Amino acid sequence: MLRRLAPIALALAFAPAAYGGDLTVAPQDFAPAARPLAVSADFGRPGKVGVQLTTASGRPVGWLARPAVRRAIRLRWNGRLDGVPVASGRYRIRLVGPGRKLASAPFTIDRSAPTLAGLLIESDGAPFAGDRGLLATISPNGDGLRDAATVRFRLSERATVRLEVSRTVSAPFPIYELTATLPAGRHELRWAPGAEVGPRTYLVRLTVRDVAGNRRTYGAGDARSGRIPSGPVVRVLGVEAGFTRDSYAPGQRADLVVSSDANWLEAQFFRAGPEKVPTPADNVMNGVPAGETITLPWSAWRNKPRRVTFGIGAWESGLYFLRLTADDGRVGYAPFVVRASLFGHASRVAVVLPTNTWQAYNFRDEDGNGWGDTWYAKGAQSTVRLGRPYLRRGVPPQFRKYDLAFLHWLEWTGKKVDLLAESDLDLIGSGDELAAAYDLVVFPGHTEYVTRREYDLIQRYRDVGGNLAFLSANNFFWEVRREQGVLRRTRLWRESGRPEAALIGVQYRGNDDGTRQRPFLIRGATVAPWLFDGTELTDGALLGQQLGGYGIEIDGLTKDSPPGTVVLAEIPDLFGPGFTAQMTYYETLAGAKVFAAGVLDFGGSATIWPVRRMLENLWARLTAP
Fold first, then answer.
1. Each residue of 516-529: pLDDT tens digit?
2. pLDDT confidence of 229, banded at 50, 70, 90?
3. Are residues 141 and 207 both part of a single domain?
4. Which of 27, 179, 535, 562 has the fewest CB within 10 Å, making it most exposed?
5. Are 97 and 129 contained in the same domain?
6. CA of 608: how far to CAs of 91, 246, 611, 615, 616, in Å?
7. DSSP category for residue 403
8. pLDDT in tens, 444-487
9. In the chain, what is the straight-line distance between the N-terminal and C-terminal CA atoms, in Å?
C-alpha cells in the first residue's frame, strides 16, 4: 500500500498551489519611517509560494519572502532588502508559485517628508526691536497694533499641518493647536490670542504629515536643540521692566529698562511687606506707596526698549518695586533692594534676600528661541544674566510662596533690619567687618547659589561668633561666579571639600516638588525650650498640620554637621527611608548661634501661629550680643 501512495504524495508536493483569495498590500502609499507595509493573502491549500518585490514594470528587485510551502501570507515589511533601504518610487508586490506568477499589487514607497520652505512669522504691525524671520512680537490687547501673529510658508506637497503654540519650561506645554489639510503651495496660519495670555515667548511648532505618514517637525522639543531655532517664536509683550542692578543706596540714580508698546505708562514706587492685603497670584506684587504716581508718555517707544533713570528716595532699607501700568491696563513690576547707607548703623540685623536664586529660576527668554535663559530649562546653558526682568510680569520666582510672609512678619512686628541683596555682600570687606556691623544675619529664602566670596564671608562671620538663621532649605549648595553681570554655575560646594552642613548644620537631601508634605514632629522642646516658649509645643507634638505640612526640598544632618548640633524637629522619612527633614540648632565656642529650618517653605509660614511665636523666640536669642 505504501508503494501505491508514494507517487501521489510526490505529485501533490510539486503541484501549483491553488490561489483562493485576494492579495492585500497596505498602505498603498508606504512610508517606512511611519509604519511597516502589510502583505496578506490566503491559499486554498498548502503550496510553494514566495513574495517578490518588483518595479512598476515588473522587473524583479528582491525577495521579501523566498518561496516556501505556505497556506497563507502574513508579512510586515520595513522597506529594506538585506538591510539596505529601498529607494522611493513605484513598485509591485508579486506572489510567485512554481513556474508562474499568482498575483501582484501596486504600491508606492515614499521616504520624503513634506517641507515648509520660506518659513517665517510676522505680527500684524510694525516689528518690535529684535524681531526677525523666526521671531515676532505681538501684544494682544485689541488696539489694532500687533494683536496677532501670522506664520507663512510654502508647502512642498499636500499634507496635514498642525500648528502648536507652547509655553516652555523644560518641555513644551501646548496652549493652542490648529490643524489643517492643505495642498502644495503658499499658505499662512494665524494665531490671535486673547489678552489673558501672559507676556513671555511662546514656541510655535509645526508638524507636517503627508498621506503616506512621513512627518517633519519645525521647532525644538527641548532647550538643548532649541539653542539653534528651527521654528517660529512669538513674543507676547506686556510691560516688561527691570532695573540694571538689584540694589541701591538712598540717593543713588537707578536705571530702568522698559519694553512696552503702550501709549503711556503710570509709574509708582512701593515698599513690599507693610501692606495688609492678600497677594492673590504669583504675578502680583503689593505694597505701600513710597512716592507719587508719575505719567510717562510712551508713544515714541512703542517699537523698542527705553532706558529711564529714577532717583532713589531717602527710604528705609527694604524691598521696593516700581509698578508700571499701561493705558490699556497691562501691569509690570520692577523690584529692587534699598540697602542701608551705612551697614549696621540703623539695625544690628541683616536680612539677605536670595537674589542669585531668583535670577537662576528666571525663565525669561531674551534670545528669542522660545526657551528660558536658565539652566533649569535643561539645556546646555550654565549662565544666567543678572538684571533681567522676571518672567511673571516682573515678580521674582516663588516670591509669594517663600519670601513674602517673612517680609510681612518683619514689618508687622516692627523689626528694623538692613535688607541686602546678595551682591551687597561684596561691599563688605570681611567676615570680621560683617560681625562688627551685625549680630545676626538671616537668610530667609532659598539661597542655593552663592559665590566663593559670599561663602567665605559668611563662614568667617560664623567663626568669629556671628549668628545665622536659615529659614529655607538647600542653601549654599552651588558655587557660582559673578562676572560682568552674568552668573555662572560651576560645581557643588561639597564637591570642593566644603560641605554646606559644616556651616549651616544640615544640607540638601532631596526634592519631590511638594508631592509629599507632612508636619514636623517636635524633638527638641526639652533641649531648646527657649524656641518653643509660649507655643504649647512639646516633644512629640506636630508643627504645620494646618498648612498641610512642610517639605518640597529638605535638609538633614551629615557627618560634617558641627559637633553639638541638635535636632529641634523633624519629618521622618518624608521622601522615603532615611530621607528625613531636620530642623537644627548649634552653638560654637566662639559664641555663634546657628538655626536651620531644614525645609524649603518654613519662612513662607512666618505669619502663622505658632511659627510667628517661634520666630520671636529665635529673634530674641540670636539678636542678643
1. 999 999 999 999 99
2. low
3. yes
4. 179
5. no
6. 76, 29, 6, 10, 12
7. I
8. 999 999 999 999 999 999 999 999 999 999 999 999 999 999 99
9. 118
Contact 349, 438 (CB under 8 A): yes
The reported pTM is: 0.90
Domain with 151 in it: 116-236
- Give the distance from CA 484 to its chain's centroid: 25
- My answer on whether 152 and 250 are in the same domain is no
> Percent of the chain beyond pLDDT 90?
92
C-alpha cell at 165: 503654540
- CA-based nearest residue to 323, from 253, 385, 272: 272
pLDDT of 228: 67
Q: Which three cell numbers stand for residue 67?
A: 518561496
Asked if residues 128 and 261 have their Cβ atoms less than 8 Å apart, the reply is yes
| Alpha carbon distance 140, 335 (integer Å) | 25
Query: What pLDDT does 223 receive?
Result: 82
- The residue ranking higher by pLDDT, 625 or 263, is 263
Sequence-separated (6 or more) residues with CB below 8 Å from residue 181: 158, 159, 160, 161
Distance CA 164, CA 175 (A): 8
Instruction: Read off the C-alpha cell for 385.
Output: 544674566
Q: In this structure, what is the dihedral angle of CA atoms 125, 130, 131, 136, given to the nearest 10 degrees?
A: -80
**How many H helices and E strands in the chain?**
8, 43
The structural domain count of the chain equals 4
Angle subtended at Cα 415 by Cα 412 and Cα 421, rounded to the nearest 5 degrees: 105
φ, ψ of residue 89 to 5 degrees: the values are: 155, -175
What pLDDT score was predicted for residue 9?
31
**Strand partners of residue 51:** 65, 95
- Condensed to tens digits (0 to 9), the pLDDT of residues 453-465 reads 999 999 999 999 9
Grid cell for residue 354 = 536670595
Is 558 part of a structural domain of the chain?
yes
CATH code, domain with 316: 2.60.40.1930
Q: Which of 359, 356, 354, 258 lies closest to 310, judged by CA?
A: 258
To the nearest 10°, report the CA torsion of 564, 567, 568, 574.
Answer: 160
Task: Look up cell 549648595; give the residue.
Answer: 477
Bridge-based pairing state of the strands 247-248 and 331-338: parallel
